[in-house]
Each structure stands twice: as structure tokens, then as C-alpha cells.
Amino acid sequence: MIFTNRTYRTALKILVTVAIVVFGMAFLQVSNTPSNDFGEMRLIEDGRGMKVEFHPTNRVNCKRIVLTQTAQVIFKNGGDVTPAPGDIVSYWDYRNKSALDNGTFVDHAATSQDPEINGQDRDERTGNEAGSLEDLGDPGKRDATGTTPSTTFDYPWLGSGTFPTGKTRVVMKIEVCASCAEGNDVGTVYGCATWEYTQTNAGPSTGDSNSTSDATLDPPSSDFKAAVDLFEENHINEDGERYCPD
Hints:
The chain has three helices and twelve strands, in the order H-E-E-E-E-E-H-E-E-E-E-E-E-E-H. It is of the alpha+beta class. The chain has one domain. The chain is globular, with a radius of gyration of 17 Å. The two termini are 18 Å apart. 39% of the residues are buried.
């Protein structure tokens, strides 16, 4: 979930990379590895966050494998409440135009032109340097030049002031799908996995992330497809070119 400003996200990516290099994988727990003929999605619990890796099989022929993520924020206790993103955090109002009636939205930054969470938006904005990368993680590939996984990571949290009156618990439902953005398989969705983040209004220290996928990578849900379609409707102009309306 892209909850923080660009500088914080960039610093977070550096810190996570350093931590993994220095301490290894001892503090990470593979929560689940749903798979199909196209590959395996590794959901790796990291404290209150989740690291996601899609590892393609030889059924895949793609130069750029990307991950797209949708989220739904549900406040619990006394009946579920699913506000629009901008009604939770005012800065998220740019997400409202691409949110479904049930609050599901494509997880993206204010300057994103595509729905991918690791699609490297910097390549689409003139003059954007590597240090100001909006996306989280890196695309993968499987083609004649080699194989690399498509990766992302997420550390959701909400401040206590964002909780509606009477609500003491929040569940964030996440769906992440791997697809081909460039190459022979362009347009193919390889499969999707789901996970949840839960937290009380006592703060981020109470947060916890867990996989909700079974052993099989599933097709995208109807909410995922509808949210992506709505995002595309708002981010492609009359000439068929991508742009950022936010």
C-alpha cells in the first residue's frame, strides 16, 4: 500500500534492501506460495508487512513481468464500513475517482500513469530520476536473456485519527496479480494472490500481515478487474496515451 510520501518510500526501499543483505532472511517467513503453470507467488511475511515475489516458469515468455495491487480498507466493530480512500486519509482523494463503490482501489501513487505497483513509472515521466521512483519493487522477466522474479513489498498502516467513531479495528484486503507488460505474452495475467493486514486503533505496532490465498494462483477477481478498468479509464486520454490526471 503506498501510504507514504516519495522520500519515505525511497528510504524504506533502501533500508529493506540493506536489512536483507546484512541479516539475511532470518526475520522473514514465507507465509504461502500459491502457484499454477505460469509460476509461483511467494508471500513472505516481514513483521507487519509483506514481501511479494512472482517466480515465472518456462510457460512464460515475457520481457517485463509486473505486479498490480488492489486494496479495500474495512473498518470493523459494529458493522463493516468501507469508506472511499479520500475519506480515510485526505491525501488519498486522488484515488477516489478510480475507487469502486465498495472502496476497492488500485494501489498507486499520485503521479502514477499505469496501474502497476512495480512498473517503474519513472520511465514514463520526463526528467524523473531513479531516486524519485514512485513504484515499489522491480519488474521481472523470463525470455531468451534470462529469468528474474517480479517483486514488490508493502508495509501498511493507519494512524488512530483515521478510524471512524466507534471503530477499533481495520482489515485491509489486498489482491496482487502478475501479468506481462512487454513481450510475447503481453496482456496475459499469470495469476493472483491475496493477503490481509489487520490493525487496531492503538497504532501500527499492533499491525500484522497474513496470506489468505490457498495453494493455487487464481484469476483476477471481479473487483480487481473492475478497479483496474476504472483506473485505465481515468489514465488514458482520447489519443490512447497514458497520462496522470491527479
